[in-house]
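B., you asked whether I could sanity-check this one before it goes into the benchmark set. Here's the sequence:
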Amino acid sequence: MTKRISLAAAGICGALLLSLLTGAPAGPANDFHFAIVGDRAGSPEPTIYGRVWREVDLLRPDFVMNVGDSIQGGDDAAAEKQWEEFRAIREKYGRYPFFMTPGNHDVWSDLSKRLYERESGHPLHYSFDHGGMHVTVLDNSRGEVALSVGELQFLEQDLAANAAKHPKLVVFHKPYWIEALQAGGDFPLHNLAKKYGVDYVVSGHGHRFAHMSRDGVRYMEVGSSGGSMRGKLVRGEGFSQGSFYHFVWAHVAGSTVRFVVKELPPPAGMGRMFPAEDWDEKGPRFDLDDPALKDKPRT
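And here's what the prediction gave me:
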């Protein structure tokens, strides 16, 4: 017994010493960061998407995800060139694993589907793990906004096979869950998320940031990382309506994931940063003029 206690104490001391020498805190086995970038299309604004990637690069994530709409799309004849343009931006930051989500601007035909799968290196739906975290990527790029029966079947099979993993994220492009939650929340996706302990459902598409919570499941729409917001701005929408250029920074610690929303700095934005949970269905729950919004948050 004494020998086992001594070995355990030695292990703890060794971990603390390594932490002091490297400057890294002794944390849980799941302790990493990743970024989620929003829509680049439709009608991409020049330079914005590249600036988002530059900001992400400064933070050195373990990997990066997107929520779809990497190219403008809609034209088979132009698709190859558009993917070349996208690749030129991405290759500058190729050091990071990049997990893509199919959007309606990415996939609209059989040819565009093949090109998307070539560029992403994945089928339209798939899943992956990083540490103990599990992510399921689904496809609602074409046809109905809601997830199809086939996508929901894939989701349930995948969640059942990975029930013990946490945190769990489900990612797809079109956020049909907004209206479904507002209508009461009794719909197949939400019921599966509750059943299997999904922590977050993440989407894009609307070029606006949104955040909602029901029954312990959080939902987040990542807004524009380059897709045009001109129509929203003309209508008088702004930060309070989620219309601002941004990306999302994530910290996974143990079985939890925490998201911080990072607005681009001037001239594309004001550089505001806030925890995603400080935004609800009515918008931001904080003082928009608080100078602390521009302080670097602890993640």
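One thing to flag: DSSP finds eight helices and 14 strands in the chain. Otherwise nothing jumped out at me.
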